[in-house]
Structures are given as C-alpha cells and as structure tokens.
Design brief:
- By secondary structure, the chain is an alpha/beta fold.
- The protein has three domains: about 15-85, Winged helix-like DNA-binding domain superfamily/Winged helix DNA-binding domain (Arc Repressor Mutant, subunit A); about 90-200 and about 380-395, ATPase, nucleotide binding domain (Nucleotidyltransferase, domain 5); about 210-375, ATPase, nucleotide binding domain (Nucleotidyltransferase, domain 5).
- The protein has twelve helices and 15 strands.
- The protein has helices at about 15-30, 35-45, 50-60, 125-140, 180-185, 195-205, 265-270, 270-285, 295-305, 310-330, 345-360, 380-395, and strands at about 65-70, 80-85, 90-95, 100-105, 110-120, 145-155, 155-160, 165, 170-175, 190-195, 215-220, 225-230, 230-235, 335-340, 370.
- The strands form four sheets. Strands 5-4-3-6-10 form a five-stranded mixed sheet, with helices on both faces.
- A hairpin with a 2-residue loop joins strand 12 and strand 13 (about 230-235).
- Helix 8 runs antiparallel to helix 10 (about 310-330) and helix 9 crosses helix 10.
Length: about 400
Amino acid sequence: MRKIDLSNFQVATSETAREVNRRIILNLIRANQAISRAELARKTGLQRSTVSLIAEQLIAEKWIAEGMVGYSPRGRKPRYLRLNVDRVGVVGINIRPTWTTIALADLNANFQAQETVRTPATPEIFVEEACKRINTLRQSHPQIAYEGIGVCLPGRVDFRSQSLVFAPNLGWKNVDLRGPLEAGTGLPVVLENAANACALSEMWFGQRENTRDLAIVTVSEGIGTGIVVNGQIMNGASGLAGEFGHVTIDEQGPVCKCGNRGCWEVFASNTAAISYYRQITSHRKPMDPALPKPTFDDLLRLAELGDPRASQALDRMAKYLGAGIAMLIAGLEPAAIVIVGEVTRAWSRVGPIITETVARHNPLQRKVQIFPADDALQPRLRGTVALILQKHFGAPAVA
C-alpha cells in the first residue's frame, strides 16, 4: 500500500479522471493496435460518447489514427483505431564511452533512422555535435511530430534536476546536458541511467512487460543495475539507487574508476574480461605494444574459435557476474533478472556458469529465472523511447 504524502500531494479533480481515462484508452489502443470505439467502451466501461470524445482529441493531437473499416452485419461499420506511427516520433540517444548512437523511432520503438558516431571527450563538444545531428535528422523527416529526446547514460542521473551526477567510464561529472540539448533542439529532453532505461525498455517493449518485480543488469564497460519494484523504477532519494556495480566485493581488488577498490564491475564487466585476457596472455608471450588492444568483440570471437585464454576470461567474468547477481537475488528477490550486453551473445557458454554460481551462493533462495536480452534489439536505445512515451502512456502522478 502506498502511503499518501501529506507534505506533497495533489487532490483528485475531474481533470485527473479525464487524464486517467485518456491514458487507459491510449494504452488499450497501443496493446491492441487495431480496436474500435465500441470495443474500447466495452473494455473500459466508459460511455461511448466519452470514448469518442477522447479518441477525437487523440486524433487531433496525432497520437492515433483511424485505420481499416471493420465488418458489421448491420448498422454503421466500425473504424479501427491505431497508434499514429507514421506521424509521431521520438529521438533516442544512447551514450557509451567509445561511441554514441542517435536514432529516430516511432511509437512502437521501431527505428526509422540511426547513426553511430564517436563519443566526444567532453560534454560540451558532445552537446554541440548531438544538436547538429538531431536537427539534421529532423530536417530529413519533416512529416514527423517530435515528442522529445530520450538520453541514456553510463552513469547516475539526479531525477529531480535531470543532471548527470557522475559517469566514471565517461569521465563526466556534475554536468547539465538537458538544458543545452533543449536549447539547441527546441525539444524536451529526459535523461536516465542506462540500466534504468533498459528496465523501462523491458517493461514497455520486452517479453516481461507484465512483470512487476524485475532486475536489469547491464554489462558493458562497467556494470549497472535497474531495479523495478511493484511496477516502478526504484530511484532512491535523488535517483542514485541501484549502483550495485560499485559495491565492493573485494577490498584488495583493483582500483575502480569510481575511486573504490574491488567493485563488482572491475571483475565482471567487459573491461575486466579484456584486462584479465591481456594479463594471462602476456604471461605466456609479451604483447606487442604497437598492436591495437583487443576489444570485447575480439574476445567473444576468439572464444568462439576455441582460444583457451579467451574462454578462460569469459568463464571468470561469468562467475563474477553470478556472484553479483546472487547478491541482488538475496537482497531484492526479483521475479526475474535480465542481463543486457554483448556478453549475451555467448550465452550458451556464460549462462550455465552464471546459473550454477547463483545457485551455489543462494542455496536457500527460490530459483529466480535469469534471461539474456536480445542485444540485436538495442534495449538501451529502446529505453530512451520509453523515457518519452511513459510521460503520455504511464499512469499520471497522484498523491
């Protein structure tokens, strides 16, 4: 039960009821993608006149459109309503330490256009470059009504001020990205941590859309966690909750970019696996400093080809992932855990190791299902779309 906050509440008004009904109808149209006004009235219990009024408003605002004409043995034939995917769009930005992807998506999170560029070293250059590319994208698709820009970051965001607090793997700290992006594009901007964005992606577009308690583990240059409790993202007092990647699991371990020693991510991230591979390889044969450093994609490819040292590095990574996930299960007991990242491409190898490690660390816990996200579906980028859509499709804020 959610307690009413008497220091910060909003009483229900007729406008509140209208907004709730509007969002219910919008979500029913989204869920069915072809539904008549009469069927909406039956599903909601609202008067047909109320449904028609809301539908006309949504059509005028370009959120929905009338589609095919249905069959009726007598009387007026129904016109089916659908999301107006051809006219409403969202810009999504996925920032990672080495590269950034900017995309245009429709209301179903299908990408109409996208490009990937090197991530600039400073946030100032990033904003300048991003604004140029977003404005060019909009000029190329002038028929689209743009609802906003969703941005996911490999760091923590203060959800009240919408400022980036810190992103160790980017080297950015206490940065206002929203203000300059809004000024440069004229569109509203929403920022979110990458793991939380992936959690939203799973809730809105994933296979576990109806799961109320969920943990997302993003595995990339670092490790992030997005926690869903009772259908809501767990933010904490200022939006910094879920920083399990920077929980110390070995005080004698390597120094992390956050300043601590032995964080989970220095053992279980892509970066950790590459570092360990280089370490065990250089013991046998010194690496030529002139050669480029191996990437995580290289590591996956080498392991697939049977390289024993690449396989050893992935096995070690999987064991540490399992140990950290066991911690999440013991503390949060989610219904499911979804792992996001390139490591899922080697799931046939790492999946059994993760599962076995979790079972060994949590012998008394019930079995929690652990799933790999489909990396090809770009969950981080889809999460940026959900950031914007939740403002219109999500339940409105009430006391």
